[in-house]
Each structure stands twice: as structure tokens, then as C-alpha cells.
Amino acid sequence: MIRVMLVDDQALFRAGIRMLVGSQPDMEVVAEAGDGEEALRLVAGSRPDVVLMDIRMPVMDGLTATARMLEASDAPRIVMLTTFDLDEAAARAIRQGASGFLLKDADPEFLLAAIRTVHSGSSVIAASATRELFAHFTPQTRPVPESFAALTDREREIFALAARGLSNAEIAGREYLSEATVKTHISRILTKLSLRDRVQLVVFAFEHGLA
Predict the structure, then answer these.
(1) CATH number of the domain at 146-207, out of 2.40.50.140, 3.30.70.3450, 1.10.10.10, 2.40.30.60?
(2) Which strand ranges, in their side-by-side order, compose the sheet holding 77-82?
(3) If phi over 0 gives left and psi between -120 and 50 gives alpha, with beta otherwise, what is residue 171?
(4) CATH number for the domain whose boundaries are 2-121
(5) pTM over 0.70, yes/no
(6) Per-residue pLDDT of the chain (211 residues; tens, 9 = 90+)
């Protein structure tokens, strides 16, 4: 069962998401909060797997709450909720460690699929959208860390394609590989670069001028 926490200052919006999530046999809403401060008080006791976190809220905004929540070793995976396609605050949250972002008017089926995707940890919400977001808000380029030199030539090819937002299936088709092989390569790349998921891979690529 996927344990979901909702953090949004609009009670009506939370009620709609609660009904949607509650209708699924593999999900349950374990906590709700109207601001980031309340979310931090509730997260330890409710132990959610996935947090849907609004960015703009009173008392404590979603950015601050996300940064604080991710300090814990057993932190949940956090998905930012935003009303803007290209939102600098969402980009900042993803740099802090959020697993992606969703538009508040996303299709219900997409939202449910996103929760499952993030919970599995095997892929990312809209890697192409994340790439577009970071292309729009390009951070100052940092030196490439030595860990990147540990990648093989093939892993660098896969890294470049993943950084462009291509899915495992798309990479497999371009490189004439099986999806299982691509998944193995991605896993090794993430391990070597100490990255958590494909969102962090996209962030890494942009922050070090490798996109």
C-alpha cells in the first residue's frame, strides 16, 4: 500500500485528491496539512511514502518544508504541485531533492501514475518536462566532479540521452538495446554519480554543463 500525504492550503483541492487517491486499491491518504509547518509536525507520525507538496502556502511554503523534510535519512519522496509549467520555485525544489513536479490541473490518471512511478523509484515524472524547466532556469555551471570520469563510454552515451529526457524505451530504440539493459546502465550511472533518480540525473547534467 502506497502511503500518501497531501500538503496544500486549499481544503477543496485536498478533498478532491483524497477522494481520487482513496479510490485506488493500492493507495491511501495517511495525512493532510494546510501548510509546510503543519506537514513537518505530521510527517514523522504518519510516515508517508509519497508527499504531494504545494509550493505556495502560508506560514511555511513548500520549498522550506521540502528542504526540512529531506534532511531525514528515511525521508519520503516528494512531488511538488504547481500551477505554472515553467516555475523557478519547482526547479529549486528539485535541486533540493524533490522527485519531480506536477501541474495542479494534471489529468487524474497521470497524477495516480506519477505517485506510483515516484514510489517505485525506478523512473521519473516527466523527465522531458524537468529538462525543459532546467533549460529555462539554467543555473551557473559547476565543475564536473571526478565521479563522472568513472562512467564508461557506453554509460556516457546513455547518460546524455537520459539527460535529454528520453525514456528507457526511447533509449533502447535509439541504441538497439533491450529496455532491461538500458535500465541496468541507468542504475549503474546513478550509483556511480551518487544520484537518487532520473530527475537528479537531469539536474546533474544541467548544473555541470553536460545537458
Answers:
(1) 1.10.10.10
(2) 27-33, 2-7, 50-54, 77-82, 100-103
(3) alpha
(4) 3.40.50.2300
(5) yes
(6) 999 999 999 999 999 999 999 999 999 999 999 999 999 999 989 999 999 999 999 999 999 999 999 988 889 999 989 887 666 777 788 888 888 888 888 889 889 988 998 888 755 555 566 666 766 666 667 888 899 999 999 999 999 999 887 888 899 999 999 999 999 999 999 999 998 888 888 888 888 888 7
